[in-house]
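Last lecture ended with a question: if I hand you only a sequence, what can you say about the shape of the protein? Today we answer it with a concrete record. The protein is PQ loop repeat protein. Below, first the input exactly as provided, then the predicted structure, then a couple of comments.
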Amino acid sequence: MNTDLIGWAASAVLLATLIRQIVTQARDRQARGVSKWLFLGQILSSAGFIVYSILVGSPVFIATHSCILVTAVVGQIVTARNRRG
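The predicted structure:
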């Protein structure tokens, strides 16, 4: 069994979930219940995990955390836009 396949599948599920949440927030146009620290924490965490993944040489985690970083930035932008009204 290809163990990387498990990692890629888990990454796909996680990214689909994050993207769906951002789409929901964008359509709702409200930032109710969304902590202003959520996406900032996610950005910092993803950046750290990208560095770690590069150091240990894990392409699955490099790609996954790079995509998660992008979703965090987009989520921060959507949330900020929604807070402005």
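Comments.
1. The mean pLDDT is 87.
2. The helical segments are 3-28, 36-56, 59-84.
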